[in-house]
Amino acid sequence: MKLFQIEEPDGGPADPSAPGTAIAIDAANAEAAVAVSVGGNGVVLTDREGFERALTVPGAAAAPAQWQELFEMARTRAERALSRPATHAVIVLDTNADAGLSKKLQEAAEKAGLTVLRFVRKAELPPHVTPALAAAALAEDLAPRPE
User: Fold this and answer.
1) What pLDDT, in 10s, does the model give residues 16-72?
2) Domain coordinates of the chain in residue numbers?
3) What b/e readout covers 37-75, taking b as 16+ CB neighbours within 10 angstroms?
4) Which one of 1, 14, 115, 119 is separated from 138 by 20 to 30 angstroms, measured CA to CA?
5) How far apart are CA 108 and CA 86, in angstroms?
6) Distances in Å between the alpha carbon of 112 and those of 1, 13, 36, 38?
7) 8 A C-beta contact, residue 133 and residue 36
8) Residue partners of 66: CB distance under 8 A and separation at least 6
9) In the CATH scheme, what is the homologous superfamily, with its name and number, of domain 23-142?
């Protein structure tokens, strides 16, 4: 008979109240892109083969529920790709978000489980970098740090 020992991994259980990953959601085009940056290295996230879902961006006049659905799908894509919670986001828009639109999007994001770190206009990002990747680097910089 062979015996083996099972040990708990170092550090114990993760703190459920700790902030998760900050992602970027590029909603400036007809289809959204989701990206993340770690150490300044960004990557656009995709769904697994066979589980692809289009992240169709609703219009500015769309109901909050449509925006919530987009944010939920973006968060799900990130969490599946990263195997960890996504809790914060930088959102890229094609135009300026006036007070009414930014409030609507912020509430929709919160209902989807995301805290908006910042809204960014696509034109404000460096032209030589993919907007989702530039926003992901910004999200990484603005993300709350665990205590």
Assistant:
1) 667 789 999 999 999 999 999 999 899 999 998 888 999 999 998 999 999 999 999
2) 23-142
3) beeeebeebebeeeeeeebebbeeeeebeebbbbbbbbb
4) 14
5) 15
6) 51, 25, 18, 23
7) no
8) 58
9) ATPase, nucleotide binding domain (3.30.420.40)
